[in-house]
């Protein structure tokens, strides 16, 4: 049972906009920033978004993040087949313990 | 470019201790936090703990009684020991760097570099 709650699956067609939600509490998302990771099949996770809405160098601007209160969202616009992956939200709690969501499997139809 | 590589036995017997090492190349282990994260087959990510280059540690409360993370700055390596393992500890184990950004009102942390992961199976 993950501390952060994500939908287990999401889907969209090429070109569509898809959002993935992440729900937490006042001790994690409510008081700290949210990061998002993309895990392509058979590979290690990759940092996609940090500090709620910041993209590391090399991440396309099709990916965006937002946070409000104790929830956060990842949005992917102009969906592409190569976006098919598992997506994880993460936040640190007030004791500096890292917490992950259960992951959302994104299928590009 | 910072690179991380996990190494260690791929098979551990129940009740024994799992030991892994992460070797950091392309950058110094100094001035950063370093972490271990695991992923059971077909499941999500679980944070195990982190160590600062100076040796201070913080562990996942659910694993704290069984986990030890250590660092060897002379070798640019940090290590994980997980004792009394069971089949539930079977997972891909990743090492990762904890990146830090300082803002005027807060400090943010994230895992910016990851190893490729190593599968550890617990079985007799």
Briefly note the structural class of the backbone of chain B.
mainly beta
Number of strands of chain B: 11
Count helical runs of chain A: 0
Oligomer, anyone? heterodimer
Portion of residues in helices of chain B?
under 10%
> How many E-type strands of chain A?
9
Looking at the structure, what is the overall shape of chain A? globular
* Low-confidence region ranges of chain A: none
Task: Give the SSE string of chain B.
Answer: EEEEEEEEEEE
Summary, kept brief:
Chain A has 109 residues and is mainly beta. Chain A contains no helices and 9 strands. Helices cover 0% and strands 44% of the residues of chain A.
Any descriptors?
heterodimer, A: mainly beta, six-stranded mixed sheet, three-stranded antiparallel sheet, 0% helix, 44% strand, B: 124 residues, mainly beta, seven-stranded mixed sheet, four-stranded antiparallel sheet, 11 strands, globular
Overview of the molecule:
- The complex is a heterodimer of chains A (109) and B (124).
- Chain A has strands at 9-12, 18-23, 34-39, 46-49, 63-68, 71-76, 85-92, 98-100, 104-108.
- In chain A, strands 1, 3, 4, 7, 8 and 9 form a 6-stranded mixed sheet that branches. Chain A has a 3-stranded antiparallel sheet with strand order 2-6-5, with no helix packed on it.
- Chain A is globular.
- In chain A, β7 and β8 form a beta hairpin.
- Chain A has 109 residues and is mainly β.
- Helices cover 0% and strands 44% of the residues of chain A.
- Chain B contains no helices and 11 strands.
- In chain B, strands 2, 4, 5, 6, 9, 10 and 11 form a 7-stranded mixed sheet that branches.
- In chain B, a hairpin with a 6-residue loop joins β4 (33-39) and β5.
- The model of chain B has no long low-confidence stretch (mean pLDDT 96).
């Amino acid at each position: 049972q993950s501390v952060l709650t994500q939908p287990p699956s999401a889907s969209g067609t090429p070109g569509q906009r898809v959002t993935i939600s992440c729900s937490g509490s006042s001790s994690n998302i409510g008081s700290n920033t949210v990061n998002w990771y993309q895990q392509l099949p058979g590979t290690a996770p990759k940092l996609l978004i940090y500090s709620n809405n910041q993209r590391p160098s090399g991440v396309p601007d099709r990916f965006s993040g937002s946070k409000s209160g104790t929830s956060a969202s990842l949005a992917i616009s102009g969906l592409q087949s190569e976006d098919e992956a598992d997506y994880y939200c993460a936040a640190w709690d007030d004791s500096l313990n890292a917490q992950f969501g259960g992951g959302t499997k994104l299928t590009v139809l | 470019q910072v690179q991380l590589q996990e190494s260690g036995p791929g098979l551990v017997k129940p009740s024994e201790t799992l030991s892994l090492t992460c070797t950091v190349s392309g950058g110094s282990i100094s001035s950063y936090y370093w972490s271990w994260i695991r992923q059971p087959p077909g499941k999500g990510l679980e944070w195990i703990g982190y160590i600062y280059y100076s040796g201070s540690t913080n562990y996942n409360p659910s694993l704290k009684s069984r986990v030890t993370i250590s660092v060897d700055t002379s070798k640019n390596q940090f290590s994980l020991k997980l004792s009394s393992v069971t089949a539930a500890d079977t997972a891909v184990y990743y090492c990762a760097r904890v990146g830090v950004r300082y803002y005027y009102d807060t400090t943010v942390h994230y895992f910016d570099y990851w190893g490729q992961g190593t599968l550890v199976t617990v079985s007799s």
